Amino acid sequence: xxxxxxxxxxxxxxIWSWCFAGGIGHAFAPSPATPQLWxxxxxxxxxxxxxxxxxxxxxxxxxxxxxxxxxxxxxxxWLRKHHIPATLFITGRWINANEEIAKELASSPLFEIENxxxxxxxxxxxxxxxxxxxxxxxxxxxMREVSDATVIIKKVTNRQPRFFRSGTNYYxxxxxxxxxxxxxxxVGYSIAGDEGATLSEDAIVKKxxxxxxxxxxxxxxxxxxxxxxxxxxxxxxMLQKKGFRFVTLQEYPLR
Length: 255
Ligand SMILES: [Zn+2]
Fold this sequence. Notes:
This protein has helices at 2-20, 23-28, 73-81, 92-97, 99-106, 139-157, 173-181, 201-208, 228-241, and strands at 55-62, 86-90, 111-115, 129-130, 133-134, 163-164, 185-186, 191-192, 216-220, 245-247. The chain has 2 domains: 1-28; 45-249, TIM Barrel. A hairpin with a 2-residue loop joins strand 4 (129-130) and strand 5. By secondary structure, the protein is of the alpha/beta class. Strands 1, 2, 3, 8, 9 and 10 form a 6-stranded parallel β-sheet that branches. Strands 4-5 form a two-stranded antiparallel sheet. 38% of the residues lie in helices and 14% in strands. The longest helix has 19 residues, at 2-20. It binds zinc ion (ZN). Zinc ion (ZN) binds next to loops.
């Protein structure tokens, strides 16, 4: 009988210390570093200019990699000729493949060069992927994806980039907080203008004619064989006729 009482008390003590050691918390609640969100529009991703003025930000991604190292000369030359400013989200790997072009773009006051990551990875602390593209797998990998590109962009532009858009524009909230801690505003879009450089000229025109004040348009400057240049060259003058002005991201606060 005494043995049974001792054994009962011993069991109670064990349960008690397990609770105090945080056992219940660990068993039933996720640890703070476990991400709960995964997507393009999680809180913190800015998608609009915070203004009612009739302005639109054109952002052009250069993703890099095997099928992504191209340069849409026709589009960029047309923007230069017509003095249309744009924010260029460029990866470190695209700059490494196009160093002279990147320097030339950086020397133009029309273009603001921002960070699209080193290797175009979705930003995850647990290796999640988006559209079949594997994401970063840890806190360290997120930091490297951002900072390695920062170093390369600074070398080309002599300035610190302020805006970040990950490859595929996917984040979990832990990765997003890390990127903000590195001093970046994370920027998505409100209109996917060329849907990954897959849309026809007509589809791009139709889509962009829906633009409203403060929209951030996402298109690509690395797919010269796509219809993106034709679409933008047709629709930008139409939008200007409607009273819109094109601006870079740094000219307005974002929301
Ligand atoms: Zn991209």
